[in-house]
Amino acid sequence: MTLRDIPVIPTIIVAAAIATMIALGFWQLGRSEEKAELLVRYQTAPVDGATIAYPDPGTDIEPLLYRKVEAVCETPSDVRGVAGTNVLGVKGWAHVTDCTLANGAEARVDLGWSRNPQSPGYEGGAVSGILAPNGRIVADPPLAGLGPLAKPDPADLPNNHLAYAGQWFFFALTALVIYILALRRRRRSA
Predict the structure, then answer these.
(1) Distance in angstroms (rounded) separating the CA atoms of residues 157 and 152
(2) CB distance 106 to 93 below 8 Å
(3) Calpha distance 125→110 (Å, rounded)
(4) What are the contacts of 36-40 at 24+ separation with CB within 8 A?
(5) E strands along the chain, which residues?
(6) Cα gap 66→154, rounded to integer Å
(7) Distance from C-alpha of 55 to C-alpha of 71, rounded to nearest angstrom
(8) Secondary structure of residue 184 in the 3-state scheme
(9) Where would I find the beta strands (DSSP E) of 17-170?
């Protein structure tokens, strides 16, 4: 096979696709390092430190995750049961509500745990707990006569970026092999 036998436009397209997949693989490697640093920061959050007020709307909560937080739930709505786990690892129902807080922020409050899917009445009030991802407050102590939920744990957050990088590199290699096989087949049929 000579250079003239290689189709130009399909080769450019395949080369661009392979280069993109390799770039995505390296990007995922970088994201893996960032996520590892983030998880270390979460795991070293001062959970036993001072309690902070729930951040005002528009505040970046990322650096505050896994810290003790307090707020006032002025307007709870839609108290509902979702799958949850208590502090002993027993599966059951986590009872959650969406709250408008005293500072104007909106937050989901995980009130507590029970074996019963029917949610208790909750009229709002002071909440203290742990600030979890997505701005959730996991109440500690639990509210509305419920049992304690498992505390949010940064170890539960996956760092899949290394696997994603491997997938992108594999896709690039697969595209290269398929293209080489297609060129060989084209040469044999010519």
Answers:
(1) 10
(2) no
(3) 13
(4) 36/159, 39/154, 39/155, 39/157, 39/159
(5) 52-53, 68-85, 91-101, 106-114, 125-132, 136-139
(6) 8
(7) 9
(8) helix
(9) 52-53, 68-85, 91-101, 106-114, 125-132, 136-139
Nearest to 17 by CA among 183, 165, 176: 176
C-alpha 120: how far from chain center = 29
Q: What is the pLDDT along the chain (190 residues), one digit of tens a residue?
A: 566 778 889 999 999 999 999 999 999 999 998 888 877 777 776 666 788 888 888 888 888 888 899 999 998 988 899 999 999 999 999 999 999 998 888 999 999 999 988 888 888 899 999 998 888 999 999 998 999 999 887 777 778 999 999 999 999 999 999 999 999 888 888 6
CA–CA dist 12, 149 (Å, integer): 56
List the chain domain ranges: 3-41+158-189, 46-156
